[in-house]
Specification:
Layout (H helix, E strand, L loop, with lengths): L1 H17 L13 H8 L3 E7 L5 E10 L4 E5 H4 L6 E6 L4 E4 L1 E6 L4 E5 L24 E8 L3 E14 H8 L9 E5 L11 E3 L5 E8 L6 E6 H9 L6 E2 L22 H15 L9 E13 L2 E12 L14 H17 L5 H18 L4 H18 L5 E15 L2 E8 L5 E5 L23 E14 L2 E13 L24 H4 L51
Parallel strand pairs: 19-21
Antiparallel strand pairs: 1-2, 1-4, 2-3, 3-7, 4-5, 6-7, 6-14, 8-9, 8-11, 9-10, 10-13, 11-12, 12-13, 15-16, 17-18, 17-20, 18-19, 20-21
Length: 560
């Protein structure tokens, strides 16, 4: 079985490099709508997931050759914890891939293999001719922008950086093998790592690769000729995603779906929410002035009453400075959604992230100090939003939650959170906090001790149906210490770890036996029946070995 798969992989990669029969035909003109109709069905959204099915990154991929392989961004799949990739095509069909056949760190490309039972689809043709950027050749990129929807952007190829020049501006070590990348002058398709760049005929001339560099980020185009050469020289071997090599280039990985939020938008949402929550009668002071009798005075022989303005507790907010209305929770949810998009989105400087996160955390700190009446109303609205969120994920939330136990997961540590007045548990992935990156959020601090109450803003993203428990994956954008709303249950002495929902394919776990330890084939004993008297012994006709048809296994790849 392993030998057959190896042969399949070799032939498949070669066909992918040479271009299969499913390549799109030449398009008349260069209409983007016609080009999208031809190239779109061959392009897919690649979602990298861990063993719990949690999304860790989004990229664009495109079918090559006979459609059995998908070329995409290496950095998205090479993240720690990635075990599988979900491929979503333009027609809404989704399928799962577990293995790759080629990974080139210099090109930043990974070629993943579709499953045998996947729906048959055509691939794109890789142009074998080097592109001359001085020709001003019109091209277009087709990709799933921001991991959200498919877009087509027109542009022109231009002269790009060499691999050594790219290493210099990106602060990485120069590779031994030098490659000449191309440039692409269209800003329309930001956030489309792995998107194919095609000409008017629909042939692939390159692949987009956004690289973090100084003084500004740069998007290069991996030439199709270089990808084709790598495919033809690839060693035929299927491996699982955890075996992917470390990417050479610091590519901007799209961690959450959706366009990154402008930092100023989050600040405006916080200020607008403060204004809505502020009591309109006392303007947030908790007190109003009331006219009250002071004393009598005699003026010109007449007595008149003297009044003065006395500060009293505001009857509208009862001194709590804020007034709650049910419509206010939508504003809070917007802060949770926008904050998550900003904190985990690509292309935002670390200082900007920290500043906005601090602004949101300060606002959350105010929610922990509100009066009893406002707190009960906000708490009830948060519990209702959590109950509603179970059927509307993903959704932004702001709520009170209690820290529970920290447990081991299949790819690291996780902390459980118990929202107030809710039976559901949230789970937060520690790797989300970016222990090796200064661009994500700060790691859980002392406020994340067992039993501590927090007020959090973030986004609930996905249900996890684990044996014996129902969890919701939550991405926190910011948090602050919350009011004490009750004691935590006794801490479990041995917290139950989170079991993986998905495991690697069985055939990928098989180890190659060491030389000399291969099992010997059993001896075949042939019993010959003696001939009957008077009958001649005739030699049975030699049975010719059956010829394997091109339909065995993967029909796309046999027959070379």
């Amino acid at each position: 079985m392993r030998i057959r798969l190896t042969r399949v992989l070799l032939v498949g990669l070669c066909l992918a490099a040479l271009g299969g029969g499913g390549a799109v035909c030449a398009a008349e003109g260069f209409g983007l709508a016609a080009l999208r109709e031809k190239v779109g069905p061959c392009t897919c959204l690649v979602t990298a997931q861990n063993a719990l099915g949690l999304p860790l990154g989004y990229a664009t991929g495109f079918l090559i050759g006979k459609g059995r392989f998908v070329a995409t961004d290496l950095a998205t799949l090479a993240q720690p914890g990635v075990v599988r990739a979900v491929l979503r095509f333009d027609d809404g069909v989704e399928e799962v891939a577990w293995e790759f056949g080629l990974a080139d760190p210099v090109l930043g490309v990974a070629v993943i293999r579709r499953e045998e039972n996947a729906l048959e689809r055509s691939g794109l043709h890789l142009s074998p001719q080097p592109v001359n950027p001085e020709e001003g050749r019109p091209v277009a990129a087709v990709g799933w922008q921001w991991g959200d929807r498919m877009q087509v952007g027109r542009g022109q190829l231009r002269d790009g950086l060499s691999a050594r020049e790219l290493a210099e501006v990106s602060g990485t070590a120069a590779p031994i093998r030098d490659v000449k990348f191309l440039g692409f002058n269209s800003p329309v398709l930001e956030g489309t790592a792995g998107a194919p760049v095609v000409d008017g005929a629909g042939d692939v001339v390159g692949m987009l690769l956004p690289v973090k560099a100084s003084p500004q980020d740069v998007t290069v185009v991996v030439p199709a000729a270089a990808l084709r050469e790598a495919l033809l020289s690839a060693k035929p071997e299927l491996k699982c995603f955890p075996d992917l090599p470390e990417p050479l280039w610091p590519v901007q990985v799209q961690q959450v779906a959706g366009k990154p939020i402008h930092p100023g938008l989050v600040g405006r949402s916080v200020r607008a929410c403060k204004t809505r929550l502020r009591c309109p009668r006392c303007n947030g002071s908790g007190q109003v002035s009331e006219k009250r009798f002071s004393h009598w005075e005699r003026v010109g022989g007449m007595r008149r009453a003297v009044y003065k303005m006395v500060p009293v507790t505001c009857p509208t907010c009862q001194g709590e400075t804020a007034v709650w209305k049910d419509a206010h929770y939508a504003s809070l949810a917007t802060i949770g959604e926008q904050g998550t998009q900003l904190v985990y989105g690509p292309g935002v400087e670390a200082q900007t992230r920290a500043a906005v996160r601090g602004q949101v955390a300060e606002f959350l700190g105010g929610l922990s100090k509100v009066g009893e009446r406002f707190r009960r109303q906000f708490d009830a609205a948060g519990a209702a939003a959590v109950a509603k969120a179970e059927d509307e994920l993903p959704v932004g939330l702001v709520l009170y939650a209690q820290v529970r136990e920290t447990v081991d997961g299949p790819d690291g540590r996780y902390t459980l959170l118990a929202p107030h007045w809710s039976s559901v548990l949230f789970v937060v992935r520690h790797e989300t906090f970016g222990p090796t990156s200064d661009e994500i959020v700060h790691v859980p601090d002392a406020t994340w001790r067992y039993g501590k109450w927090l007020v959090l803003a973030g986004r609930a993203e996905k249900k996890l149906a684990l044996p014996g428990r129902e969890l919701i994956y939550f991405r926190p954008a910011a948090w602050a210490s919350g009011p004490h709303l009750g004691d935590a249950p006794s801490r479990p002495p041995n917290p139950q770890p989170l079991p993986p929902l998905y495991s690697l394919p069985t055939r990928a776990k098989k180890e190659t036996p060491r030389p000399g330890t291969e099992p010997k084939p059993p001896k075949t004993v042939t019993v010959t029946k003696p001939p009957e008297p008077g009958k001649e012994t005739t030699k049975p006709p030699e049975k010719k070995p059956e010829k394997k048809s091109e339909g065995d296994g993967e029909p796309d790849f046999f027959g070379l």
